[in-house]
Amino acid sequence: MGKRVIESPVPFVLRKIFTEKITGELTIKGENYERNLYFSDGYLCFARTNVLHERLGEVLFKIGKIDQTQFWDIHKLITGQKNKLGKILIDNNFISQKDLFFGLMYQVRVIALSTFSLTSGEWEFTSVLPEIAEDSRFKIELPAIFAEGVPRFKSLPLFRNNFIKRSMQTKPISAEISSFLKSEDLELFKKLSARPREAVEKIAGEIGMADELFWQKLALFFLLNVLEFVDSAVDKELNKNLAELVALHEKLKAQDMDYYELFNLRNSATFNEIKDVYYQYAKKFHPDRLGEAPIPELREKANFVFARINKAFEILSNEGKRREYDMKGYKEIQNKEKSSENLSEKANLYYRKAKTLYSQQRFREAASLMEETVRNDPTKASYYLLLGLSQSNIPNLRRAAEKNFQKVIELEPWNAEPYAALGLLFQYEKLEKRAENFFKKALSIDPEHELAKKRLAEITGSDKKQSRFSIFQKKK
């Protein structure tokens, strides 16, 4: 579907919606729930849910707008009815129009606040707002949701781990934002503002506040967009780990390292010893530990090093694979891996050549070369994308192109490019309804996708002029 809640919590999405005044629909789905939040220019205007205790009847009962007898009678009232529950309750004199409005607004807040406690599921944002009845459309300010929701924020440990090694940079608080803060919040913010560029870890230890409460306040300031986290002036631990990472990368590139040598262990090492070393390496060298890596090459090196570490752990932690490794030796197994690496390198070389051919509009040559590319390495979405784009410019290969774009979606469902490419494909085939759907899907993933926006405008009637099939263009 989209991004995982555990890695990208919903309140972070709400922050973006608030700060950038975004309009659209946020869908959050989990194993036993689905919630939909609707926004207009950064305001929360409506919400839906399938969670039982968040449904309108339960909410009205909870806030005392209907009594227990009326609550139990709801099931009888809605049986065979097509009208919405609110109208049914009004028609049967259970509640007034004013009570319904208050109950719906309360329900919307309950649904929004529930997203702070989520730790599983996935979310997806679509920049299209469906029609909402005027009597059910609200204008709820997200700062109010942030202030009430932060104490329920289950991803606070993730927030803390992400930013504890950073420094803080504060922004002026407007009168509007200050109205959502308590006096003690404003006092804390004043103290933080007086310590710019100091490490959060240091401030947390000196501020004289319980750790959880301190991080809740920082989360609130962050969501309100009056506080940012920036790289610490000195992060000795990270710098030390980066230096070790570079050294290990150079060593792995320069020589064949036995897996026991890589883990600095004897071949008689126990599973627990192997596991301990692996966890130590994960803490120091996992690419995610780099945060926003200062140089792209460092992330590439981290990916290379940790791939080797993972491979070593996979072999040494499995009794059968370790026995085979000990019997056959490092060289034989490594030769198999190198053979696979050689195919990947060859595929990458073909890909670069094909991209040049594509830019020269030599589409048949590019398509032929990309077919060889995916035979050598069938794992990369970018290869199938270029193959599909090349084939799209050759009329009798457009069905094959469609299959390759679908393969890209299978490998990278979060990527807007294959959806835009399918939109172009069907637009050239004069199947404009299908094209429109794919352009809308591309924009639901990347609302700023220039080509999808332009082509969707063409379909809806503004500009019918077409250009050559290509998604390799700069965004404005």
Mean pLDDT: 85
Order of helices and strands: EHEEEHHHHEHHEHHHHEHHHHHHHHHHH
Cross-sheet strand order for the largest sheet: 1-5-2-3-4
The chain-level structural class is alpha+beta
Give the tally of β-strands. 7
Uncertain stretches of 5 or more adjacent residues: 462-468
Give the fraction of residues assigned to helices: 55-70%
Largest sheet: 5 strands, antiparallel
Q: What shape does the CA trace take?
A: globular
SSE topology:
Elements: E1 3-4, H1 10-20, E2 24-30, E3 33-40, E4 43-49, H2 56-62, H3 68-78, H4 85-91, H5 97-114, E5 122-126, H6 142-149, H7 156-163, E6 167-170, H8 175-178, H9 183-193, H10 200-206, H11 211-223, E7 227-230, H12 236-254, H13 259-262, H14 271-285, H15 296-316, H16 319-359, H17 363-376, H18 381-392, H19 398-411, H20 417-428, H21 432-445, H22 450-459
Antiparallel strand pairs: 1-5, 2-3, 2-5, 3-4, 6-7
Helix pairs in contact: 5-6, 12-15, 14-15, 16-17, 17-18, 18-19, 18-20, 19-20, 20-21, 20-22, 21-22
Task: Give a quick summary of the entry.
With 476 residues, this protein is α+β, with helices and mostly antiparallel strands. 59% of the residues lie in helices and 8% in strands. The longest helix is centred in the last third of the chain and has 41 residues, at 319-359.
Task: Provide a descriptive summary of the structure in words.
By secondary structure, this protein is an alpha+beta fold. The chain folds into four domains: 3-147, no CATH class; 155-230; 245-317, Helix Hairpins, CATH 1.10.287; 343-459, Alpha Horseshoe (Serine Threonine Protein Phosphatase 5, Tetratricopeptide repeat). Helix 14 packs antiparallel against helix 15. The radius of gyration is 28 Å and the shape is globular. The model is unreliable at 462-468 (pLDDT under 50). It contains 22 helices and seven strands. It has a five-stranded antiparallel sheet with strand order 1-5-2-3-4.
